[in-house]
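Because discrete structure vocabularies remain unfamiliar, we turn briefly to a single example record, giving the amino acid sequence and backbone structure tokens:
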Amino acid sequence: MNLNGLEMTWLGHAAFRLRLDDGTTLYVDPWLTSPTAPAGAIAAERADAIFVTHGHSDHLGDALDLCRSTGAPIHAIHEICVWAGNQGLDQPPVGSNKGGTLEVPGGVHATLVDAVHSSGISTEAGIVAAGEAGGWVLAFQSGPTIYHAGDTTVFKDMELIGELYEPDIALLPIGGWYTMGPRHAALAGRLIGAGTVVPIHYGTFPILSGTPAELREHAAGAFEVVELEIGVPVG
């Protein structure tokens, strides 16, 4: 996996920190207090942008607290940002929708793309509708293009994501039950055409039983499977 100087850190479940060589720091699905998150992950020293794939608590996670502590804006589908904008944040969220591309600090081009999953925000008053689930494609100027699929099953239009954005690295859920498992994720990897797949959203709870070894078996060499260690930066 060639990150071309980009530092990638898996923070457990579906949470990632991506840091450029100038210090620009992006977070995706920052559930930084998950059972598998490294100690102190919530005490982020810097964030410049926060990306959320959908409204479930294991992905929206600690985005509000991270926004408050760092001043980084939340980027998500319109409905999540309308809700977040009513939560007393000093930094207004930046809503977008599928197919829209925006530029964030570090010259990164971020595009919200489709996913096949549900989305809702759990509150004391019940579940708040949170638009549709999505994924993010992050294109780094001097680094790779990374596709974070969020929560999804495999769907045929992953081929279009591959054709349009040509991701080098795909971060794909493999746990099963709430998302696709290893067999379907292997097909997803083939449809996307990325050279490297990083498995995510597994092992946090016993019910998320898919494993990287199973993904590698089903992939049968179609792409490189890179199993990251939680909290250990690579690149």
Remarks:
- Residues 7-225 form a domain with the Metallo-beta-lactamase; Chain A fold (CATH 3.60.15.10).
